[in-house]
Specification:
The chain is mainly beta. Helix content is about 5%, strand content about 40%. The chain has one helix and 21 strands. It has one helix at about 185-190, and strands at about 15-20, 25, 30, 35-40, 40-45, 45-50, 50-55, 55-65, 65-70, 75-80, 85, 90-100, 100-105, 105-110, 110-115, 115-120, 125, 130, 135, 140-145, 145. The protein is elongated.
Length: about 200
Amino acid sequence: MKGVRAMSFEETNEIQTSVIPRGTVITGNIQMTGKLEMYGQVIGDINASDRVDICGNVNGSVNADTIHAKDSFIVGKIICAKDAVIHENTVLLVDVSAENLVVEGAIQGNLDVKGCVRVGAKAIMESDIRAKSIEVSNGASIVGNCTLCYADKDALSVFPPEPEKPVKPVKVAEAEKPSKPVKAAEAKKSAAEPEKKPVRRTT
């Protein structure tokens, strides 16, 4: 039609969504712009510029703006520029780096969260946590260390530093004194002289 111009994708201001359907297995890395809905299986890394929804299995790293995982199994690493949400029926054997993290499933791995970690009542975590704050619902299971190292308050400025433990001196055993050298003449003399046996006296 004359006078009608087709709009480009950029002009629509819409974000493209790619879909990996259930039953699909992709071996290799995925590099994409836009959103991703993954229902199949990926053996490799996923790198997306926007949100990634995972309802399948991933063996590799997932790097995205936001990540939602539900009914999935992920082994590798998760890196989020913003938030990560781990829903129920999800098992993650990963290290997670995110701005904020919500956990309703199970995670085994180290967590580095610049903001808040919210742990739901059904969550199971075997993780060392580094965060700004943490909210734990009654019923959650957490095994590991928790350090609020990104908190606004600095504990080191409140409590005095621990005194240094004195170093105990280590006793060095005295070296054995070397035996006196035997002169060659004395050695020959003792070798030449026969061994003297005690003499019995009879009456």
